[in-house]
Model the fold of this input.
Amino acid sequence: MDFNEFSLIYPSKEHRRRHDSGECVPDIDLFTLQELGLLEIFTLKNRDLSEFFTTDAEVMRYRMATFDDMMRCAPLSDMLNKLVPVLNDIMELRRLEADSGDTTDYLSSITEIELYVSSIKILHECLTGVKADLKSPAFVSLAKLITELAESDYYRELNQKLSELTQRVREIKSVTIGVNLDAQLRPTSAGVLSINPEAFKSGDVLDKILRLNFKNDNYTCIANLVPFGKKQSENQKMALSLAFNSAINDVYRSSLKSWKKIVQAYVLENTEFLLNLIPEFEFLVKGTNMLKELQNKGCALSIPEIRPMEERRFQATALYNPCVALKIEDEIVANDLIFDDKATIYVLSGPNRGGKSVITCALGLAQVMMQLGMYVPAKEAVLSPVDGIYTHFPTGADDTIDKGRLGEECARLSEILDCVTASSLVLLDESLSSTGSFEASYIAAEVLSGLAHIGCRCLFSTHLHELAAEIDNINARSLSSGGVAIDTLVAGMEGEGKRSFKIMRAKPDGKSYARDIAESYGLTYENILNRIAKEQ
Done:
């Protein structure tokens, strides 16, 4: 296999090509991830997380197997955590070389080779130790590639040559400098006369006494070069270092030429293979860290059964919101959620702070985690990929000066309708809350009828209990035009105003929720009478 074709998150070069061309990329952007809350627990430095989404089931299964190895074999995360800083050093070294314009620097070349050898050593030692436990095609292939590299004649030759060259550099303890002077004793030129395996002596009386040697020799300093030392500026130090390095490069230039072919034809090519994997390493390590945090809290994680996109499946047992799970100390409440022939769109109503927004985001997070190729936050799950996720959550006052709050909400809903297909997922949370219930219910009913006609999956979390009561009428209209069915979900109560955070497939009772809200603020008739009585 060509090293440069290898990937830990794409099964083949063709899968990577299709992704890069946009053939298998869903419409899931960073704004959507931010609204769902994923960026609070999973962020990357080298790439945007949105760049890793896919609709390709083969890619998802390949990644899930990779994550499975990462979750089972802790040394793999340790290996990648050690490897990435080494590769970053190589990239920084190349950047400095590019800035200086000098690609023949002897010391830089040696340093890059040392870093490359170090990276192969890190990979080889770890993968050899866990080779028997690896199951994913990605890590099995990587172990094979690294073994092939580490045991090759080229690699052995490289190590031997590197050892010889670095030994010669490490033997340098001092340089002898010659300076020509003019008639007024001003320096006219300077150069290195010799590179020495011994450090020079200070020449101080105390130093001579300690060495019990009062003789002058070629390594005894008779006068310090001024200004050199603590009083020297950073620019002066840099100038001196650059002069010495340049001289050493000139001395060893012939050595560099003799192994330049090895460096260019072998090492640099294989280093490129590792550098290209840095974003993948970060994605896998940080994704694994997030999953392990959930696992350590006792939260269920599962590898979903992936169904074709055209089946439009979503069936999750004990689904929960991973962002909330990582924030709270209490045990997370999980819910079952299924989209089927009886309901492709749900209207979710219930009391404030009853878990409506939490389950809405949980649905979206399960979908995005699957399409990243990760475990999903549920005990069991059967999911189809979606071609896009579109959210309409409460926002601030942006873009409301010209349109007004309601106009802004309607404009965003209109944009969603322009993008959504039968294979999309739409999440609406407290949409149309900026106007009265009559106007909001009317607009919401029109939007739901349109989404039902399109046939997408949708969860509409709302305070509009009147809307939930009108579902039968909305269905009568949408089903007659070939649309999908709409059903209702309710966020439950346990009595005395206590939220259960359980989501049930049931008809809503708007009055009980209104009374609960009134009681929580002391606005029932009985509470008002009691307050008046206390004031008298």
